Amino acid sequence: MNKESLMKKYNLKGNPKTGLTMATFGFFIGFAAVSLYGPVATNINKVMNMPALMLGFLVAAPNLTGSLLRIPFGAWVDKVGGKKPFLTLFALSIIGMAGLTSILYLYYPDQLTLKMYPLIFFFGLLSGSGIATFSVGVPQTSYWFPQNKQGFALGAYGGLGNTAPGIFGILLPFALVGLGLTGSYATWFLFLVIGTSIYTAFAQDAYYFQLIKKGVEKEEAKQVSKELGQELFPSGTVVQALKISAKVPGTWGLVALYFTSFGGFLALTTWFPTYWIQYHGLEVRQAGLLMALGFSILASFIRVYGGHISDKFGGERTAMVSFMIVLVGSVVLAFAKSFGISLLGEIIMGAGMGVANAAVFKLVPKYVPSAPGGASGWVGGLGAFGGFAVPPILGIFVDFYGQAGYAKGFIVYTVLAVISIFIAFILKTKYAKSVYPGISKN
Question: Which alpha helices (H) appear in 128-237, and where do they start and end?
Fold first, then answer.
């Protein structure tokens, strides 16, 4: 029976192209909340007069839930497919953004004080739930595509979805001028609601999960899905997926690499606007544009090509080179005093992080083919925790060194890059050969 006949017989919907498109769209809209914190942090701080450490925690709040929720929700995909986890995270994010919008309407600016910091932080945590959609979209995309196209598909997914902070970073400063802080939050909240509705209407799970939901036996569902081109299949429950992937040593190496590449990326999308404003004296619109064009959008688009490079040269080798680039960029930023050199350092870091992100997730289905969702949860969740952990550390540098700390703090990335190069080297030379002797040297 040909594919078209099978699709009609079982009333299946979707294809790899639409699966990738909707997963990418879902990740894009889920990222809406994180873009609000960097450019508007200065506005909120002018009213609340926070110490740099508290400011660092506030701008990182969405990244805490956005990272930790990736672990269970990424693994949940192996049980139910991606659509239900996506919608659950959207619902949590909508509640958080609704709370933040309400606070701003009721209290900003005159009644917004440090006493309200815990409540703002709490709603920030909820609004960051949408960021966790990343680890849902990775296995959702992986289930749609064969192994030899994983690098391209995941690179396109992560790269295009990651453009959200950059695009929002460009738009938000202008929205702040035209709509005000409260109006801007309300606009982003409306965007999230509309985006969730579009995803609900058009997203489909991979064929295997559609068949299971229709009551088809697992073996039959697997056989039909294979005939339709699906190669990856879940191995068990959510807990089993996490256990299986946790037992693979390479999973933890990838967690460490992703802590630097994507966790570091998240941290800088919120920190760079503050850096440009406080260290170079730029105004908020200029700072937002520099973060978006010089870092976020660059890192996102180059990630797409990074997937192709990883397919060609291997994820481990690509990771080593890309972290060397991050190392160079961090050193430039740590010692730069002029605007031009600082911008160069930002661009170098953006390029390195973008390629590194693609390289890391090229390796997830390669090392853990029996539980890509579980591995995606660990790597995406604990790795992205860097987005929460790093900004407060950067804030400590500012509290200790004053204005010079905005530059000196990039030494943190120098250290992380060195560690990541070493780990990628171990994966390349020892782990892949000893645990997976059949894996290509690339």
Answer: 133-144, 150-161, 163-202, 207-213, 218-227
What is the distance between the alpha carbons of residues 351 and 175, in angstroms, rounded to a whole number? Answer: 28
Amino acid (1-letter code) at residue 252: W
* Token pair 């460009």 in the structure block, residue: 170
Phi, psi of 33 (to 5 degrees): -65, -40
Residues with Cβ within 8 Å of residue 428, at least 6 apart in sequence: 314, 316, 317, 320
Residue 294 is classified by DSSP as I
How far apart, in whole angstroms, are the C-alpha atoms of residue 404 and residue 191?
Answer: 38
- For 152, 165, 208, 354, the CA distances from 359, given in Å and listed in that order, are 10, 21, 27, 9
Tell me the C-alpha to C-alpha distance, in Å, between residue 399 and each of 39, 46, 67, 261, 394. 20, 17, 26, 25, 9
Q: Which residue blocks in 402-439 are alpha helix, DSSP H? A: 405-408, 411-426, 432-435
Alpha-carbon span 154 to 198, nearest angstrom: 22
Tell me how far apart the alpha carbons of residues 89 and 76 are, in angstroms, rounded to a whole number. Answer: 12
- pLDDT, residue 440, reads 42
pLDDT tens digit sequence for 173-213: 788 788 888 888 888 889 999 999 999 999 999 999 999 99
**pLDDT tier for residue 442 given thresholds of 50, 70 and 90:** very low
Q: Which helix (H) or strand (E) holds 430?
A: none
Residues 64, 128 contacting (CB under 8 angstroms): yes
Residue 20 has phi, psi (to 5 degrees) of -65, -40
Say how far residue 83 (Cα) sits from the centre of its chain: 18
pLDDT in tens, 347-371: 999 999 999 988 887 888 777 777 7
Q: Virtual CA dihedral for 388, 319, 442, 71, nearest 10 degrees?
A: 0
Domains by residue range for the chain, with CATH: 3-435 (1.20.1250.20)
Q: Cβ(396)–Cβ(276) under 8 Å? A: no
